[in-house]
Design a protein that fits this description.
4-stranded mixed β-sheet; 443 residues; single chain; globular; 16 strands; binds 4'-deoxy-4'-aminopyridoxal-5'-phosphate; alpha/beta; 7-stranded mixed β-sheet
Length: 443
């Protein structure tokens, strides 16, 4: 096992230009970045280009990209049809203060694909999609409270800035814990935190608060929290109890939409009232969406009477992202999803074999084409299980894989893109074996 200092030294040696860019970047950007998740010590890698399954950093080092901009590039980098659509559109103008055919085309694809979505609207980020879905739920029900799950991540809106991520004091009870400074305590009064995959406890809490609850929001596959699928029974129980009490059920499928045509809802046949979508739907450009039941979405209709929800956003459904998204989504066949999911399953099986063979406590959770490596023996069904993992080993795994040509999220999450084949899976497992033996195994 190498020391952490040796590991950092090895990293610095292979990335001097990134090191220099970091110095420059940190003069003007906090931590040299504009996104907390992409920062890591001693400094992040600065990327220069990507093609297919590979990215090159500014030092010219090529790696297999299993991160795919946090799961959004389902076709990998510079996918031909997306680049072509963007090029064609760019020659016609970049954006206009008016709707476009591009938006309609992408909306049609999504309405066709995602079974619960009758009408939708575009926005620029998943954070906004969640914000509007929650606002719709509050306006529709006339209630103020929102229930979210412990460990669930839904972007940066105040209502959902509670009880996710490492480093919080997850005590025995489920009181909402703010994950950010600057969230007034009054927001916590309108948030109920529910336990994930625990039907009875979740139902009890929903029952207790039902009169005030506008929405229950859930990632059907908890993504950032460690790629943990909700069981079908659990989703089904949430559907039943929210229906019983007239609470709006929101599936945040921003990440899970890549796991099956139409997302988890299509796969398991449980339909929420509203759905948030993002990542893969825009082909790699900034765009997200929220949609669902026509009677709820009608509150956004500019032709409607009160109560009307104004929907602003200079770049909502911006045409470059819309045409990129339509190109990406129209090239995703049902067979493509199956193939991606099979490759993720191969990674998990290969990793489980390595963990067992080397006697290292570890497991890989999988949700469709998403996967997360964890250094724990525990079966993972909640975020608290993720927290039992060895975080030092997880970080060593990340650096070891970087060193051996594989780019992942620093928290051990990865995903498959359509240019990948068994060869990329084999390369991943080869890098993982060397990392486990040389960088992690204790002598
Ligand atoms: N919800 C989920 C499930 C997500 O994974 C993310 C992004 N990781 C968001 C919401 C927020 O999306 P964005 O980063 O586009 O604001």
């Amino acid at each position: 096992m190498i020391s952490r200092e040796q590991m950092y030294e090895r990293y610095r040696k292979s990335s001097p230009i990134s090191g220099d860019l970091y110095q420059q970047g940190a003069e003007v950007l906090l931590g040299g970045t504009t996104r907390t998740s992409v920062y890591f010590e001693p400094y992040p890698l600065y990327m220069q280009r990507g093609v297919g399954a590979c990215v090159w950093d500014e030092d010219g080092v090529k790696r297999l990209d299993f991160l795919n901009n946090y799961t959004s590039l389902i076709h990998g980098h510079s996918f031909g049809p997306v680049v072509e659509a963007v090029r064609t559109q760019a020659q016609l103008g970049l954006c206009y203060g008016a709707p476009t055919k591009g938006e309609i085309e992408l909306a049609k694809i999504l309405v066709e694909l995602v079974p619960s979505v009758q009408k939708l609207r575009f926005c620029s980020s998943g954070t906004e999609a969640v914000m509007y879905a929650l606002r719709l739920a509050k306006a529709y029900t006339g209630r103020d409270k929102v229930a979210k799950f412990e460990g669930g991540f839904h972007g940066a809106h105040e209502s959902v800035q509670f009880s996710f991520g490492v480093g919080l004091d997850y005590s025995e009870n489920l009181d909402p814990i703010p994950t950010s400074a600057g969230i007034p305590a009054s927001w916590a009064e309108d948030v109920i935190v529910l336990p994930f995959n625990d039907q009875k406890a979740a139902e009890d809490l929903i029952r207790r608060h039902h009169q005030d609850l506008a929405a229950v929001i859930i990632e059907p596959i908890m993504g950032s929290g460690g790629v943990i699928p909700a069981t079908r029974e659990f989703l089904s129980s949430l559907r039943a109890i929210t229906e019983e009490y007239g609470i709006v059920l929101i599936f945040d499928e921003i990440m899970s939409l890549r796991t099956a045509p139409g997302g988890v809802q299509a796969q398991c046949g449980i339909l929420p009232d509203l759905t948030t979508m993002g990542k893969i739907i825009s082909g790699g450009l900034p765009l997200a969406a929220f949609g669902g039941r026509e009677d709820i979405m009608a509150l956004l209709d500019p032709r409607g009477k009160d109560p009307l929800i104004p929907h602003s956003g200079t770049f909502n459904g911006t045409v470059l992202a819309a045409v990129a998204g339509a190109a990406a989504m129209s090239h995703l066949t049902p067979e493509a999803y199956t193939r991606l999911n099979d490759l993720a399953a191969s990674i998990a099986q290969g990793m489980e074999r390595l963990f067992k063979g080397l006697n290292i406590p570890g497991t890989v959770t999988v949700g469709g084409s998403l996967f997360n490596v964890h250094f724990t023996d525990r079966e993972i069904t909640t975020f608290r299980d993720v927290l039992t993992g060895d975080m030092d080993k997880r970080s060593r795994f990340f650096f070891g894989m970087l060193h051996r040509g594989v780019f992942l999220a620093s928290r051990g999450m990865g995903c498959i893109s359509t240019p990948m084949t068994e060869a990329e899976v084999a390369a991943f497992l080869e890098a993982a074996e060397a990392t486990l033996i040389e960088d992690i195994l204790e002598e």
